[in-house]
Structure formats: C-alpha cells, structure tokens
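MODEL INPUT / OUTPUT PAIR
PAIR INDEX: 1
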Amino acid sequence: MSEAESYSFGMLITALDGEPIATQLPFAFFPERDEYGSFFSHTSIDNPQVQQFAPHCPDCPLALIVFQGPHSYISPRWRGADGPTAPTWNYVAIHVYGRPRVIEDPREVRELLGRAVDQYEADMAQPWSLDELDEAYFQQRMASMVAFDIPVERIETKARLGQKQSAEMNAELADWLEIQPDPMRRELARLLRASL
C-alpha cells in the first residue's frame, strides 16, 4: 500500500443517475480498519457524489479510487534502442475498489481526522495537530462536511515500466530519468530500477 500512501491524493469515481462523477480528495489509509484496511476522506456536504453514500450499505455500488503515481513521456532517443521503436508513456497507478460508507459518530470522525492530519504532518519540522484548532471553528467545519471511508474490496496495480524492453534498455532509460530535474521522472527511475 506504500504507493497509495505516497500518492494519497486520489480521484474518487462513482456513478450518479447513470452518469460518472469524480472528486479529487486526500485519502488516509488505515490498515487495521476492516479486513483489508480502508481509505478515509471527507468532502463538502454539498458534494452531490456523497448523497448516495450511507452509513451501512453492503449492497451499494462499488466506488473506484484512482491513485496516480509517477509518470512520464518516454522518447525513443532515451532508450538506446538498436532497432525501430516508438514513443511511449511509463506510469504507475493503483485502483482501489470498495463501497463508501458515511461515518456519523462525531468522536470517530474527530479521531480519524486527527490521525489523517498526523499522517500528512509527519514530515513537518513542527507538526500541526488537530487539537490546536479552535473548538467552535472545528464544529462549524464538521457541520459543513461528510466524513466517509471505503473498505478495500479489491486493489489493482497498473504499471507500464518498459516490460517489453530488455533489462539493458531499461537500465539505460533509468540512467537518463535519474538525471532529470523533474522529481517525478527521478521517482519513475527508482521504480523502473526496482522492476529490473
């Protein structure tokens, strides 16, 4: 689950009245919740996407969260190919499927929000805590949002990391990606090397 945690800003996709609808949201993963863990988030009470969520709905339709990892255009010139080759795009993504459920207990919402903030603040020099928030302001914000989680039912990893290329060609590509100023390309190089 480390890639989903590293790239925790996901796209939640559901259907509403037969039409696809998506919302970009931060998600915190809590492995101890449910059999395979769950992803926690919150959104505005005015977001039509959450109107279809319920506290307990085992028959609700599946939702999809897409976590996009590093990706980059790949030029044929970067791969040191001996024969003909075409441009491509290398990428890593994680697709998580589950049934969203609203969390109604204010104490549970506060605890999960606090844990999510702690995750996001973990690498700060002086981490901020939810406990620092004025209580009246916190309650005002709580009244304007819906907290929910999505217990994991299925996870699919999607990756194109030069699987059809030789290890030597992929090593050359990783060398090239590692010296690029774009941190996403350097991260892609790390994943490419791990796949060799």
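PAIR INDEX: 2
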Amino acid sequence: MSRKKSELILNPDGSVYHLHLKPENVAPLVLVVGDQERVKRISSFFDRVDFKVQNREFCTHTGVYNNKPVTVLSTGIGCDNIDIVLNELDAAVNIDLQSGEVKSDLTSLNIVRLGTSGSLRKDVPTGSLLVSEAVIGLDGLLSFYDVEGSDREKDLAEQYKKHMAWNSDFPGVYARFGSAELIDCIAKGNSKGITVTAPGFYAPQGRSLRLNTWDDAFHQKLQSFSFEGRPITNFEMETSALYGLGQALGHQTASVCAIIANRQTHEFLSDYSVLVDQMIEEMLHKLTA
C-alpha cells in the first residue's frame, strides 16, 4: 500500500520531512540523544564523519567508529519528538520514498538512547550509568497507535497502576521491555532497572516550584514498587516512546542514562561532562566491538 503525500511528507530533495534523511544516510546502529550539541560531541570520537544535516532540533551525523558505520541523531526533549524520529527513521529505511510502498525486505535498526536522568534510589548514585531494562510510560503516546504489548508488559503496567492508585483521568499507562540482546551488550558493569518516562519535567516528575503536584507521596510510592524483583530506578522523558514504537516497528532498542541527579538524596552534578564522555566512549566501544 502506497502512502498519501500528506502522510509520508518529503522534502524537495526526497528526504523525510523533519529529519532530512534518505536511506543511505542511516547506519544500522543509531545513537539518539536529546541535545543537538551532544551529536557533535559523539561524532568527535568517530574515525571519520561522512554526512551531516540539521533541521530544527534534529541534527544527524553519520560516520565510522571502529570500522563500523554509526549514525548519531538528536531528538530534542520528550516523547512527541521521539514519535517523529522513530517514524521517520523507519520510513527512511523501510519505505520506498519515491513510490511510497513499504519495502518487502524490512530493515531492523539498532537504536540506542544515550541520555541523562535522575535516580530515585540511593543505590543508583549520581555519577553512575543506568540501563533501562523496562520502562513505564506515563505519556500516553502509544494509546494513539493500534499496538499491543506482551502479557508480561501489560502485567507490569497494571501492577504499576494498582500500586500507585493511578488517576483514571491521566493518560493511559503502558510498559515495554527493551531489546534483551542490546541491553545485555551495554549493561555489563552498570546498573539495570525499570525507568519511568514522564510527559514533563516538573509536576509529572514530582517537582513543585509555584504549583503543587497532585500527590505528595508520589516518590515514596515509586520507591516501594517492584516487578519480578526489579525496582523503579529513575525518571526521564523519552524511553517509553523509543521502546514502544521501536518494538512495534521491528527495531531493536535500548536506553542508557548518565545519572546526574538523585531525587532521594537531593544531589545534583553541576558538571557532568566527564560522566557523559565516559558514557559515550563506553557505549561506542561496546556497541561496535
């Protein structure tokens, strides 16, 4: 089935609308980051950079590291941007952009998020790296897609809602597990846990400045939750959409975050550049070995 021009929007050069990418610009390994400045930081570690493009917050560099092709792409903040990035990355490699037809031979990308995050636990301290084995999405994005998780993922979401006495007026909660092979690759020597993806930085993550949050006990409830012995470890704003859309589209996904804040001890790393560089070098080495 071909896609209507209003659905699969292309630029005059034939690239996908927001990302300005064509299939030849996308490597099998894609690193996604929130901050466009971090794209330059990561590609500075490459052996060479063969392609660069930027449109709005979406900056892409594709090159070679350890003799392996790698793409690094900035998404900006939030699941709404991940919705754009995942759909357009997939379109670039799995839809014939000239005819609009889905290709018969589909490509599965390895997509790994390198982010920053705040920990909810003392045993996941600032200065460490945390790999999201599973994610609970509070953003509601997947409610707009005709997709379903596994029974295990549905069970995780239901247990979360029951434990938290979740407000039925909030967006639909969903849960997804990342790609076991990728997670095993990057998790050695690092913490693993369940991540909560929030639809905002302040009240959705329990922060109060001039406006009160809906539940003063939010953090305490999160800290007492476990699923199959796994605790909730951290907050961030992108992983649920990455895992949910990645899984639905047939891509392999994983997420690792540098822990720069601890919500239990109230610590914050004001300068976390060394930690981020450590994460970049470690993940590039592990993913291209």
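PAIR 2 NOTE: The chain has one domain: 23-288.
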